[in-house]
Write a structure and sequence with these properties.
mainly beta, 7% helix
């Protein structure tokens, strides 16, 4: 007679795809089981992992950020016996930070309007103007909106005009200038 040992197959999951903002880190949500007793993380990029636990933290490198995404792979150890290692991958998307510029400070005469020179970039897809005064914009969503000061603005002598990105669909926080 003979004894036949049946080893469990190794299982592994790298977790679901994630999106982060440049300058952020990603916490992994990996898991392993079956015949596996450990696993190791690897990357298609040049960033680094804090350790090889299922919940390791990945810090993207400058090259990873420039590339916009990396593939992160979790591979089990080679279990004892006939079963091989298991591998699972996920894609980490790295959005560039949103940027905004309101343009330089300007001076105008009372009773005049001012053409603005805003801009946005990075992951920003739009931006809008706001004021701490009570004047009006001809189009708050235009980078080159025209601002007309109110009587209260003129009396105060100055107002602050702020240009803020509107980006609820990506991983990055809005930017203001």
């Amino acid at each position: 007679s003979m004894e036949l040992t049946i080893n469990p197959v190794a299982t592994v999951s790298a977790g679901v795809a994630q999106t982060i903002c440049a300058g952020s880190t990603a916490t992994m949500a990996g898991s392993y089981g079956g015949g596996a007793t450990s696993a190791i993380w690897s990357t298609s990029g040049t960033g680094s992992f804090s350790n090889n636990t299922p919940t390791a933290v990945y810090t993207p490198s400058t090259a990873d950020i420039s590339a916009g995404s990396v593939t992160l792979t979790y591979t089990t150890n080679d279990p004892v016996g006939a079963c091989g290692a298991a591998t699972s991958s996920m894609v980490l998307t790295i959005d560039p930070s949103a940027t905004a510029s309101a343009g330089g400070a300007q001076s105008i005469c009372a009773g005049s309007s001012v053409a603005l020179a805003g801009s946005y970039g990075g992951s920003a897809t739009s931006a809008s103007w706001s004021t701490n005064g009570s004047g009006s914009f001809n189009n708050i969503n235009s980078p080159t909106a025209v601002y007309t000061p109110s009587a209260a603005d003129i009396s105060a002598g100055s107002v602050t005009l702020t240009y803020t990105t509107n980006d609820p669909i990506n991983a990055c926080d809005p930017a203001s200038a």
